[in-house]
Every structure is written in structure tokens, then in C-alpha cells.
Amino acid sequence: MNFEEMLNAQEGLTPKREKLTIGEFYRKQIDGKYRFVVDLKSSLTDSIAFCEALKAEEQWSLHQRSKHQLHYASKQEGNVLELELEGGNWQTLSQVMFANPAVVAQKGFVDQIVEGLMEAAQKLHTDSVYHLCFAPQNIFLRKGDAMPMLLTHGSFYLSLGEQKDLYEGVENFMAPEVLAHGTIDERSDVYSLGKLIAFLYEQGSMPYEYKNVVKKATAENPDRRFKSIDEMQAALSQRRNTLRSVYALGATIVIALLCFWAYTEMMPTAGQMEFVDPVPQAVEGDPFDMPFDPESLEDDTLMTTEMDAIYQQKAEEIMRRREEREAEAKKQETEQKKTMRSRGSVEVEQDDSKE
Question: Sheet containing 139-142: which strands, arranged edge to edge?
């Protein structure tokens, strides 16, 4: 069963109506087929200024080939002026979020909505047209698609005496200067788009790249906002790139740490060795046979009593050896003299015998 057959099967049931800022949105059967229409509010259609602005916008939209422009044709049905939308299975962003509030958490959903609306606004601004109200009720989607489409644009209706009649219930999405009949420019759309982003993340945590962008976009003073949608988009892209760089750096650090951990785990671990100071070796031999530098001693008190005793003993031994050598030398000298004397007596006796 295709879409038309399903709609025909539901014929006779009361159509579900969605309240928009300009009227009620629902589907109805036209020439045997179901079409989506918007019944405009009588408080607006009673205004000649509004009807003229509506015709001007209708003529303008006929020449628009933007993929974000939802075309329509105005028709008078009895006492009601309605807009018949181009063929398609349409629903508002408000309906989508009401049916599935978790849709904003789906990966890429909000980004696709925001990027699509920025693209749509940039196209409008080239024609000096401003949407002014990016409320969820004013944004249309095809079922199963997240590409946003826009129906009517607020700058065509600035001639209305009271803007609140046109934006009843969604004033918080409007820039202050719009409601105060101030200067309208791209900054007014920047404000409204920032309010929409804040609304989408109202029930959850707003990502890093949107926080400061939304804060600047929704400044009360227009001079403190982004000057254009292009500037707002550039700031958003810059923050996304910064965030990607941070993620990439973090991933690189994690990979490096994992590689280092794997390397250390694969390397053999050396057993722990306990180093002990060696026991001082006893000095063998005579301490006085070792070289001795008296100048290295800065003070006589450095010599211990034991060393004094050893030194004294050594000195006495040296003296004793010296005395012994002297005594030995004297003894040898005495013996030599005796030998000489004995030799002299023998020679004298031999001489006497010869005579």
C-alpha cells in the first residue's frame, strides 16, 4: 500500500492539525488526492497589508529553485484563505520532535538541520530576504529526511503594524529588534538560528562547538552578534576543526602509550640486583712500606694512638738495626786489625829465621 492508498484508507477521519504561526497545517483531499495545506488565520487575512505581502512572496517563490524553499499556491476556500503546498509528505520539525524527542540525539540530525538552515539563509540573504523566525513550527521536513525547508519569510511582512500577530507563541525565537520595529538585517536571522539551536539542546548537553557560537549569536545587542550567517558558519567550522584536532591528538597519545606499554611488556625484565658495599680489605704488610705523604696530613691529631705506637716501634727498630750494623762494622774492623797484626808477627819471625 503506497502513501496515497494509506491516506485514502484514512478518509473520513478527522485530520490532525498542527498549529503554525500563520495558521493551521494539515492534509486534505483535493481532486481525489491528499494534499498538505495551511489555513491562514483570519486575524492575518483580514489585513490588506498581509494579503498583499502574501501575493508578493508567492510571486517571488515561484522563481526560487533553492532545495530549501517549499513552494505553495494561495487559494480562497469560502471564507478561508489557504496555502496549498507542493506535493510531498510534509511534517514540521515540531511534529517530529513531539513524536520522537530522542531524534535530536541521533548522530548528525541536528548538524544536518543547522547546516541546511544556514545554507537556506545564505541563499535568502543574496536576495535581501530574511526569514526572521526559525521556530520549529516554521521548519518543514519530508518524512524520513532531515533536510529543512522553509515556507514563508518574515521580511515580506514587515509592513504589518504589529509583528506579534504574525509570531504569536514563538516570540522567544525572534530578535528583539524585529518585535521593536528596529533595523532588520542578517544579524536578526543569526539570533533566531541561535535560539533554535539552544532549543534543540534544551533537554540535553550542548556540544562544545555550539556553546560559544550560540552565546554570541543570541546576544541582545545586534553589534555583539555575528555580522552574517557566513561568519557564524565559519566560527562553527573552526570550533569543529579544533575539536577534531584535540580528538586526534588524544588518540595519538593513547596509541603511543599503548605501543610503549606493549614494547615494555615484550621486553625481558632483568632481575633486581641488590648492591652491598664491599668489606674493607685489611692492609697486609708493613704500613710503613706504603708511600707516605706528610703534606697530606693537615693536622697531627689525624694520627691515632695506635699509629703513634707503630711509628715509635718502627723508629726503635731502625735505630737498633743501625746500632747493630755499626757494631758489626766495628767488630769487623777490629778483626781486620788483629789479622794484620798477626800477619806482621809472622813475617818478622820468618825474617829472623833466615838470618
Answer: 90-92, 139-142, 149-150
Q: Which position has the grid cell 491516506? A: 7
Q: What would the DSSP string read from start to end of 41-62? A: PHHHHT-HHHHHHHHHHHHHHH
Cα distance between residue 259 and residue 275, in whole Å: 32
Give alpha helix (H) positions in the chain: 3-9, 42-45, 48-62, 93-99, 109-126, 176-179, 186-200, 208-217, 229-266, 305-354
Q: Exposed, middle or buried by CB within 10 Å (0-12, 13-18, 19+), for 188?
A: buried
228 has a pLDDT exceeding 70:
yes
- Compute the distance between CA of residue 271 and CA of residue 282 in angstroms, rounded to an integer: 32
Only one residue has cell 520595529, namely 181
Alpha carbons within 13 angstroms on the beta-carbon side of residue 98 total 8
Least confident of 25-39, 200-214, 272-286: 272-286
Q: Higher confidence at residue 276 or residue 326?
A: 326
Q: Concatenated DSSP letters for 118-187?
A: HHHHHHHHHTT-------GGGEEEETT----EE---GGGGTTSS-GGGTSTT-GGGS-HHHHTT---SHH
User: What are the tens digits of pLDDT across the range 154-178?
Assistant: 999 998 877 777 888 899 999 999 9
Residue 24 grid cell? 493551521
pLDDT at 138: 93
pLDDT tens-digit readout, 322-348: 888 888 888 888 888 888 877 766 565
- Non-local (6+) Cβ contacts of 149 within 8 A are 67, 68, 69, 70, 90, 120, 139, 140, 141, 142
Please give the model's pTM, rounded to 2 decimal places: 0.66
CA–CA separation, 196 vs 104, rounded Å? 12
Per-residue cell: 46: 483580514
Residue 264, phi then psi, degrees to nearest 5 = -65, -30
Phi and psi angles of residue 94, each rounded to the nearest 5 degrees, phi first: -65, -40
Query: What count of Cα atoms within 13 Å lies in the side-chain half-sphere of residue 197?
Result: 29
Let me know how long the chain is.
355
Beta-carbon neighbour count of residue 123 at 10 Å? Answer: 18
